[in-house]
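[Meeting: bench + compute handoff]

Bench side (C.D.) handed over the final construct sequence. Compute side (W.E.) agreed to return the predicted structure before the next meeting so the bench team could plan truncations. Sequence as handed over:
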Amino acid sequence: MQHLKVENSINLIMADRHPLILEGIKILFAGKGKKKPWNLTTTRQLDLGLVDVALAQKPALLMIGLAYTDNNLITLIKSLKNTVPETRILILGSITDARFMRMAFKAGADGYILKSENPSELLNAIERILAGEVYIGKGLNLFETPPGAAKSHAAAARPTEVSDFGLTNREKEVFMCIGEALNPTQIGEKLGISPLTVNIHRKNIMNKMKVKNVSELVKIFYENQLFVTM
Protein backbone atom coordinates (compact mmCIF):
# COMPACT_ATOMS: atom_id res chain seq x y z
CA MET A 1 0.00 0.00 0.00
CA GLN A 2 1.46 3.35 -1.04
CA HIS A 3 0.69 6.93 -0.03
CA LEU A 4 0.93 10.43 -1.47
CA LYS A 5 0.62 12.78 1.50
CA VAL A 6 -0.42 16.40 1.66
CA GLU A 7 -0.65 18.46 4.84
CA ASN A 8 -4.19 19.16 6.11
CA SER A 9 -5.47 16.84 3.42
CA ILE A 10 -8.59 14.84 2.66
CA ASN A 11 -7.95 11.11 2.66
CA LEU A 12 -8.70 9.22 -0.56
CA ILE A 13 -8.13 5.56 -1.41
CA MET A 14 -7.75 4.08 -4.90
CA ALA A 15 -8.21 0.31 -5.12
CA ASP A 16 -7.44 -1.60 -8.31
CA ARG A 17 -5.91 -4.99 -9.09
CA HIS A 18 -3.69 -3.59 -11.83
CA PRO A 19 -0.39 -1.90 -10.84
CA LEU A 20 -0.36 0.18 -14.06
CA ILE A 21 -3.71 1.75 -13.17
CA LEU A 22 -2.51 2.59 -9.67
CA GLU A 23 0.72 4.09 -11.00
CA GLY A 24 -1.26 6.20 -13.46
CA ILE A 25 -3.51 7.51 -10.67
CA LYS A 26 -0.47 8.41 -8.56
CA ILE A 27 1.08 10.31 -11.48
CA LEU A 28 -2.21 12.16 -12.01
CA PHE A 29 -2.38 13.20 -8.36
CA ALA A 30 1.29 14.17 -8.30
CA GLY A 31 0.75 16.34 -11.37
CA LYS A 32 -2.69 17.77 -12.10
CA GLY A 33 -3.97 16.96 -8.66
CA LYS A 34 -0.97 18.23 -6.67
CA LYS A 35 -2.68 21.50 -5.74
CA LYS A 36 -5.65 19.66 -4.27
CA PRO A 37 -5.73 18.94 -0.51
CA TRP A 38 -5.91 15.21 -1.17
CA ASN A 39 -3.94 12.49 0.57
CA LEU A 40 -3.96 9.46 -1.74
CA THR A 41 -3.50 5.84 -0.70
CA THR A 42 -3.39 3.09 -3.34
CA THR A 43 -4.07 -0.58 -2.77
CA ARG A 44 -4.53 -3.72 -4.87
CA GLN A 45 -6.96 -5.15 -2.33
CA LEU A 46 -10.40 -5.60 -3.89
CA ASP A 47 -12.05 -8.06 -1.53
CA LEU A 48 -13.66 -7.67 1.88
CA GLY A 49 -10.19 -6.87 3.24
CA LEU A 50 -10.72 -3.44 1.68
CA VAL A 51 -13.39 -2.85 4.32
CA ASP A 52 -10.71 -3.13 7.01
CA VAL A 53 -8.49 -0.68 5.12
CA ALA A 54 -11.36 1.80 4.83
CA LEU A 55 -12.28 1.37 8.50
CA ALA A 56 -8.70 2.11 9.55
CA GLN A 57 -8.32 5.20 7.36
CA LYS A 58 -11.94 6.41 7.11
CA PRO A 59 -11.35 8.09 3.73
CA ALA A 60 -13.65 10.80 2.42
CA LEU A 61 -13.66 8.99 -0.93
CA LEU A 62 -12.89 5.45 -1.99
CA MET A 63 -12.28 4.84 -5.71
CA ILE A 64 -12.70 1.27 -6.93
CA GLY A 65 -11.35 0.13 -10.29
CA LEU A 66 -13.40 -2.44 -12.18
CA ALA A 67 -12.72 -4.20 -15.48
CA TYR A 68 -15.89 -6.30 -15.73
CA THR A 69 -19.26 -6.83 -14.06
CA ASP A 70 -18.61 -8.49 -10.73
CA ASN A 71 -21.45 -9.23 -8.32
CA ASN A 72 -18.85 -9.50 -5.55
CA LEU A 73 -18.32 -5.77 -6.00
CA ILE A 74 -21.97 -5.16 -5.10
CA THR A 75 -21.46 -7.09 -1.85
CA LEU A 76 -18.26 -5.12 -1.22
CA ILE A 77 -20.00 -1.77 -1.71
CA LYS A 78 -22.77 -2.76 0.70
CA SER A 79 -20.19 -3.85 3.30
CA LEU A 80 -18.27 -0.60 2.90
CA LYS A 81 -21.41 1.51 3.30
CA ASN A 82 -22.43 -0.44 6.39
CA THR A 83 -18.96 -0.08 7.95
CA VAL A 84 -17.93 3.44 6.87
CA PRO A 85 -21.22 5.11 5.84
CA GLU A 86 -19.63 8.57 5.55
CA THR A 87 -17.15 7.39 2.91
CA ARG A 88 -18.19 8.25 -0.65
CA ILE A 89 -17.62 5.61 -3.35
CA LEU A 90 -16.63 6.22 -6.97
CA ILE A 91 -16.49 3.31 -9.42
CA LEU A 92 -13.95 3.51 -12.25
CA GLY A 93 -15.30 0.96 -14.70
CA SER A 94 -14.55 -0.43 -18.14
CA ILE A 95 -18.08 -1.66 -18.79
CA THR A 96 -21.33 0.17 -19.50
CA ASP A 97 -23.88 -2.46 -18.47
CA ALA A 98 -26.88 -0.39 -17.33
CA ARG A 99 -28.29 -3.05 -15.02
CA PHE A 100 -24.97 -3.50 -13.24
CA MET A 101 -24.52 0.25 -12.82
CA ARG A 102 -28.00 0.55 -11.30
CA MET A 103 -27.13 -2.25 -8.88
CA ALA A 104 -23.94 -0.42 -7.90
CA PHE A 105 -25.81 2.81 -7.17
CA LYS A 106 -28.50 0.94 -5.26
CA ALA A 107 -25.80 -0.77 -3.16
CA GLY A 108 -24.33 2.60 -2.18
CA ALA A 109 -22.05 3.90 -4.94
CA ASP A 110 -22.01 7.68 -5.32
CA GLY A 111 -20.48 7.88 -8.77
CA TYR A 112 -19.52 5.89 -11.85
CA ILE A 113 -17.00 6.95 -14.50
CA LEU A 114 -15.37 5.08 -17.36
CA LYS A 115 -11.63 4.43 -17.22
CA SER A 116 -11.45 5.73 -20.79
CA GLU A 117 -12.37 9.26 -19.64
CA ASN A 118 -9.86 12.11 -19.63
CA PRO A 119 -7.91 12.60 -16.38
CA SER A 120 -9.44 16.04 -15.96
CA GLU A 121 -12.91 14.48 -15.91
CA LEU A 122 -11.85 12.11 -13.12
CA LEU A 123 -10.66 15.08 -11.05
CA ASN A 124 -13.97 16.80 -11.76
CA ALA A 125 -15.87 13.70 -10.65
CA ILE A 126 -13.88 13.52 -7.42
CA GLU A 127 -14.56 17.17 -6.60
CA ARG A 128 -18.27 16.84 -7.28
CA ILE A 129 -18.66 13.69 -5.21
CA LEU A 130 -16.70 15.21 -2.31
CA ALA A 131 -19.08 18.18 -2.55
CA GLY A 132 -21.99 15.82 -1.88
CA GLU A 133 -23.18 15.31 -5.45
CA VAL A 134 -23.79 12.12 -7.38
CA TYR A 135 -21.71 11.72 -10.52
CA ILE A 136 -22.55 9.78 -13.69
CA GLY A 137 -19.87 9.73 -16.38
CA LYS A 138 -20.40 11.09 -19.86
CA GLY A 139 -22.16 8.79 -22.28
CA LEU A 140 -23.46 6.41 -19.61
CA ASN A 141 -27.11 5.37 -19.74
CA LEU A 142 -28.50 3.75 -16.62
CA PHE A 143 -31.77 2.73 -18.27
CA GLU A 144 -30.43 1.10 -21.39
CA THR A 145 -31.34 -2.57 -21.83
CA PRO A 146 -28.84 -4.74 -23.77
CA PRO A 147 -30.18 -5.90 -27.19
CA GLY A 148 -32.08 -9.17 -26.92
CA ALA A 149 -32.17 -9.10 -23.12
CA ALA A 150 -35.38 -10.46 -21.66
CA LYS A 151 -37.33 -8.22 -19.32
CA SER A 152 -37.40 -9.35 -15.71
CA HIS A 153 -40.60 -9.32 -13.66
CA ALA A 154 -39.29 -6.25 -11.84
CA ALA A 155 -38.55 -4.42 -15.09
CA ALA A 156 -41.94 -5.35 -16.52
CA ALA A 157 -43.77 -3.98 -13.50
CA ARG A 158 -45.16 -0.44 -13.56
CA PRO A 159 -42.39 1.91 -12.47
CA THR A 160 -43.10 4.21 -9.57
CA GLU A 161 -44.37 7.61 -10.64
CA VAL A 162 -42.98 10.82 -9.20
CA SER A 163 -46.57 11.79 -8.39
CA ASP A 164 -46.72 8.88 -5.95
CA PHE A 165 -44.66 11.00 -3.55
CA GLY A 166 -46.96 14.02 -3.59
CA LEU A 167 -44.46 16.40 -5.18
CA THR A 168 -45.50 19.72 -6.67
CA ASN A 169 -44.95 20.25 -10.41
CA ARG A 170 -41.82 22.32 -9.72
CA GLU A 171 -40.50 19.69 -7.30
CA LYS A 172 -41.06 17.05 -9.99
CA GLU A 173 -39.00 19.11 -12.44
CA VAL A 174 -36.20 19.53 -9.90
CA PHE A 175 -36.29 15.85 -9.01
CA MET A 176 -35.99 14.76 -12.63
CA CYS A 177 -32.96 17.03 -12.97
CA ILE A 178 -31.47 15.44 -9.84
CA GLY A 179 -32.01 12.07 -11.52
CA GLU A 180 -29.85 13.35 -14.38
CA ALA A 181 -27.09 14.10 -11.80
CA LEU A 182 -27.27 17.86 -12.41
CA ASN A 183 -25.95 20.12 -9.64
CA PRO A 184 -28.02 23.04 -8.21
CA THR A 185 -26.41 25.58 -10.55
CA GLN A 186 -27.14 23.45 -13.62
CA ILE A 187 -30.70 22.78 -12.45
CA GLY A 188 -31.24 26.49 -11.86
CA GLU A 189 -30.02 27.34 -15.36
CA LYS A 190 -32.21 24.66 -16.91
CA LEU A 191 -35.38 25.67 -15.03
CA GLY A 192 -34.75 29.41 -14.85
CA ILE A 193 -34.57 29.59 -11.05
CA SER A 194 -31.80 30.40 -8.58
CA PRO A 195 -29.56 27.69 -7.01
CA LEU A 196 -30.93 28.76 -3.61
CA THR A 197 -34.48 28.02 -4.79
CA VAL A 198 -33.27 24.68 -6.15
CA ASN A 199 -31.86 23.80 -2.73
CA ILE A 200 -35.16 24.66 -1.05
CA HIS A 201 -37.05 22.41 -3.47
CA ARG A 202 -34.44 19.70 -2.99
CA LYS A 203 -34.88 19.82 0.79
CA ASN A 204 -38.67 19.55 0.41
CA ILE A 205 -38.25 16.57 -1.95
CA MET A 206 -35.97 14.79 0.53
CA ASN A 207 -38.51 15.34 3.31
CA LYS A 208 -41.36 13.94 1.20
CA MET A 209 -39.32 10.94 0.06
CA LYS A 210 -37.95 10.44 3.59
CA VAL A 211 -34.26 10.41 2.61
CA LYS A 212 -31.28 12.18 4.13
CA ASN A 213 -29.18 13.17 1.13
CA VAL A 214 -29.09 13.62 -2.64
CA SER A 215 -27.36 10.27 -3.18
CA GLU A 216 -30.40 8.49 -1.78
CA LEU A 217 -32.68 10.52 -4.06
CA VAL A 218 -30.71 9.43 -7.11
CA LYS A 219 -30.78 5.82 -5.96
CA ILE A 220 -34.56 5.97 -5.62
CA PHE A 221 -34.69 7.38 -9.15
CA TYR A 222 -32.55 4.60 -10.62
CA GLU A 223 -34.13 1.80 -8.63
CA ASN A 224 -37.68 2.72 -9.63
CA GLN A 225 -36.97 4.28 -13.06
CA LEU A 226 -39.22 7.16 -12.05
CA PHE A 227 -41.05 9.25 -14.60
CA VAL A 228 -43.10 12.43 -14.45
CA THR A 229 -46.87 12.60 -14.57
CA MET A 230 -47.86 16.25 -14.37
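W.E. noted at the follow-up: Residues 136 and 211 are 20 Å apart (CA to CA). C.D. will use this when planning the next construct.
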